[in-house]
Amino acid sequence: MNIKFLNEYAKVPTRGSSYAAGYDLYAAIGEPVTVFPGTTVPVTTGLAMEIPEDFFGAIFARSGLATKRGLRPANCVGVVDADYRGEIGVILINLSQEPQTIEPDERICQMVIARHEQPALVEVEVLGETERGAGGFGHSGVK
How far is residue 124 from each of residues 127, 128, 132, measured CA to CA in Å? Predict the structure, then answer.
């Protein structure tokens, strides 16, 4: 997959192990950025990517940042489409009670490259029956 460095702070994404599904993305910033409790801050990765056709990049929280510091992507999961060529950024939200500082070169999220399908949409009058039917939130849970 082709990547392009957009600033002097950008780093090649890394995987924590040979079994890791995601690539860690780094803060491509020249100085620390503080995220105050309950606020969001955009953080650049300094990268643009050429994701292959029929794939997308899913941006997820890093478990360590989320559990230890209360930081995660504000939109929970970001989507980077294959035809997007702009800079990949992450909007981090601080859900903790303390200010959190993002340091230059800190791992800020992980991106999983995944294949997706594009089924044709067909308007119908009736949908097929299932055991669950139209049961909504919590309907399939344990009673």
Answer: 7, 10, 19
